[in-house]
Amino acid sequence: MQIRLQKFLSEAGIASRRKAEILIMAGKVEVNGKIVTELGTKIDTEKDVVYYNHKKVEKKQKLIYIMLHKPEGYVTTVKDQFQRPTVLDLLKTVKERVYPVGRLDYDTSGLLLLTNDGALTYRLTHPKHNIEKTYEAKLFGTPSEADILQFRKGVLIDGKKTQPAKLEILEKGEKYCTVRIIIQEGRNRQVRKMCQAIKHPVAQLKRVGTGTLYLKNLEKGKYRYLTEKEIQYLKKL
Hints:
Layout lengths: L1 E3 H7 L5 H9 L3 E3 L2 E2 L6 E3 L5 E3 L2 E2 L8 E6 L28 E2 L8 E7 L2 H8 L7 E8 L4 H9 L2 E2 L2 E2 L4 E7 L3 E8 L6 H8 L4 E9 L2 E2 L8 E3 L2 H9 L1
Parallel strand pairs: 9-15
Antiparallel strand pairs: 1-4, 2-3, 2-5, 5-6, 7-9, 7-17, 8-9, 10-14, 10-15, 11-12, 13-14, 15-16
């Protein structure tokens, strides 16, 4: 991206734009090893290297935090080898490059966080932090009290027992029921595998919450930026 040199210096936190102009005219700024004194000089932020007082200037990255209501039919990756649509296709108006925090299956909808804050992503996805994730699911049949108890004790999937989870029946029907499921892990297709293990496969799955953050009225396929309060909450987890 091409921008004026003084704007680049300002965004990097070196000085205000007006002060940056003074620094340029004073010969204190170099671009690709050459002193630049002409105001209005444009640089390519991807290719050009800028120095101030012989020290390399790094552009400060603007950290952003996004909540997306992921629809079914999107993969939670930056690129897909099968050319399927990715969640980033839904963020075309976002200028910054962001990455998904964890994953949601191709056929699962719901709350997905995206950010360019690598430190926060690491904390939120590290197994030791056990952040609650809340799902609403449509299951075939209706789990029994024994099935619900099994969730509380842990379910054996992929040869390993899950941590205690919660299963609450919200609505019963003839062929299906609607349940709320809360887990603390993030194993591959965990909710689907747990429901399969108790012989009540998932017909439809949606993540509605991460910690105390919930989708609420956010429409499917839409996104919003997190509030400062929500960001600080995530950083304290």
